[in-house]
Specification:
Layout: E1 2-6, E2 11-17, E3 23-30, H1 35-49, E4 59-63, H2 69-86, E5 90-93, H3 95-100, E6 109-117, E7 120-128, E8 139-149, H4 150-159, E9 164-168, H5 172-180, E10 186-187, H6 191-194, H7 198-210, H8 229-236
Parallel strand pairs: 1-4, 4-5, 6-9, 9-10
Antiparallel strand pairs: 1-2, 2-3, 6-7, 7-8
Length: about 240
Amino acid sequence: MFLALDTATEHAGVALLNKAGHVIHEKNWLSNRNHTSELHIAIESALVESAIGINDLKGLIVTIGPGSFTGIRIGLAAAKAISISLDIPVVGISTLDVAAFPFINQRDQIISLLPAGRGEFSCAVFRNDENDSSILAPYKKIIEDHIITVDELFSFIDEQKGPMIICGEITDDLEDRLVQMNNTIIHIPPIPERQRRSGELARLGYRRFTQGLMDDPTKLQPVYLRKSAAEENLEKK
């Protein structure tokens, strides 16, 4: 049994996946900046409702960012604690990979986005590649997680020639601007379809387990892409 934890943004979730790779429990919720208590309650509920003891867990799957500094730390700390205490493996998954995962069989290029503050976005780009053997196959990440401005995003879109899916957590302002482009190659899935789900995180993490690509819980680090406001303020002093 595998436990998946996602607290990278306010869209949080917990899922349980069995050894055959099937999701047997999934809960997703909009967190009110209270990830710590909500996460522990959700884990306990998942185990109780599925009649599973914590010692039945064989592995942990967790989002490692990008996302909220605090949210990422909470989920990663919980995954590490359980992994180390039970001596079971853990895998860390990019939040942007999870957002893109539901669309990898549509053959369009995928742009995965998360708000990064300051009017910017965390971004990764994926393209169909039948020869790729990564956990996102038949897709390959062609542009790694990075920070992008809205102007840079629109410039990138203008350079593309084929159809593309824009997914993830898209702000209302950005969606309005994308719609106003009236670009026929852009497809923005409805909010329920593009909202990140812990069940997809579980399935994606399971691919890493089946490939033997586990992480060392003592060395697994969050992906922030930029320094926190506190770190930046400290450097200015």
